[in-house]
Design brief:
Dihydrodipicolinate Reductase, domain 2; 328 residues; Rossmann fold; 9 helices; six-stranded parallel β-sheet; alpha/beta; 2 domains
Length: 328
């Protein structure tokens, strides 16, 4: 194998917060995708270009020595082994997937959520099945080794509490996917209330509960008043409780359960621990590399699973609106 064959070539589509850290004319966030690519670049991963419609962001990238284009069609040297990573907001995703497919690509990473509406997810699913594209949604927590290993410890889990903010389709969708990865699917959901009404679907938050097929009770509670990134999961097992803090740094705590009475959750205690990191994104690219070059199986969130997440979110919203539980 020559050197080129041992590398994967990435084209980032959308150069905003999650991709380059750039927003409103300034660098405001950790550039998750760029940092992850940079950390393994030259050995395994090569960034070919970023496609971004905003001229300010393109100029910023060009100043950093990164090739930046306004449209996918402006790139002249794409080949079918390149991997497009779509980091745009979840609108018009099918349109972008179709554009990428003009180059007969086989592998595609898509930022979560797959789409805002379940019906769009189904259309995307039909399209990628038809063209035999591997589409993976970036629910990156299921790629993180420590979280994969945690599965072993959760065998006697009876209930899960999720504490989150920043939107059902946004932060909560990560937890819906992780719970699916650990335990399988929900049978039904029942929404309790809409905690905040933002003018975009992604950031609307809802509290709800449901039952998993494995007979595990799941409770999602949103806390919109906290001013840090909150995504904590508590796994209540027969004689222990495992707390997984994933809003920023990954923290896992195991505590004994002395009695059955559940004392509630002091989410404010975890503020200090919530520093941002992008470990999951690095593992995404390492797994992607192993999948493409070494033909290894991975835990990527595939199209079926990412459709399931949008289905759950849609049913939660419906059940809040009509006050009735929704079967999945
Ligand atoms: N996996 C994660 O942990 C994680 C974290 C944060 C955000 N996200 C997801 O990433 C996506 C993007 O979020 P963001 O916060 O970076 O958004 P953003 O608005 O900051 O960035 C999106 C960028 O895409 C560009 N864009 C939109 N349509 C385009 C097109 N057709 N061609 C080229 N560029 C286009 C916009 O100009 C913008 O700069 C969302 O779906 C979000 O949910 C995932």
């Amino acid at each position: 194998m020559n050197d080129q064959k041992n590398k994967i070539f990435i084209i980032l589509v959308g150069g905003g917060k999650v991709s380059t850290g750039y927003t409103n004319g300034k660098l405001t966030h950790i550039p998750n995708h760029l940092s992850a690519i940079k950390s393994i670049e030259n050995t395994k991963v090569v960034l070919k270009a970023v496609v971004e419609k905003n001229i300010k962001i393109r100029n910023f990238l060009v100043n950093k020595g990164i090739k930046a284009y306004k449209n996918i069609d402006d790139i002249k040297y794409i080949n079918k082994n390149d991997i497009f990573v779509i980091c745009t907001p979840p609108k018009d995703r099918l349109l972008l997937i179709k554009k990428c497919n003009k180059f007969k690509i086989r592998n595609l990473i898509l930022e979560k959520p797959l789409s805002e509406k379940f019906i769009e997810s189904i259309k995307i699913k039909e399209y990628v099945h038809k063209y035999k594209i591997n589409l993976f949604t970036n629910y990156h927590r299921r790629n993180i080794k420590t979280l994969v290993e945690l599965k072993r410890k959760l065998k006697d889990c009876v209930a899960i509490n999720v504490h989150y903010n920043n939107g059902l389709l946004n932060y909560a969708s990560h937890a819906i996917d992780l719970i699916n990865f650990y335990f399988g699917k929900l049978i039904y959901v029942q929404g309790i209330k809409n905690e905040n009404k933002k003018n975009n679907k992604l950031n609307n938050s809802y509290s709800f509960y449901g039952i998993l097929k494995k007979n595990i009770f799941v409770n999602f509670q949103s806390y919109e008043k906290v001013n840090y990134d909150l995504l904590d999961l508590e796994f209540i097992c027969k004689n222990k409780k495992i707390v997984l803090k994933t809003g920023g740094s990954l923290i896992i705590e195991e505590k004994p359960i002395k009695n059955l009475y559940y004392k509630g959750y002091n989410h404010l205690k975890s503020i200090k621990e919530h520093k941002k990191n992008s470990e999951g994104f690095k593992e995404l690219y390492l797994n992607l590399y192993n999948f493409v070059v070494n033909n290894n199986k991975t835990n990527f969130c595939n199209i079926e699973n990412s459709c399931y997440v949008t289905e759950v979110c849609e049913k939660v919203i419906k059940s809040v609106k009509n006050g009735r539980k929704q079967i999945i």
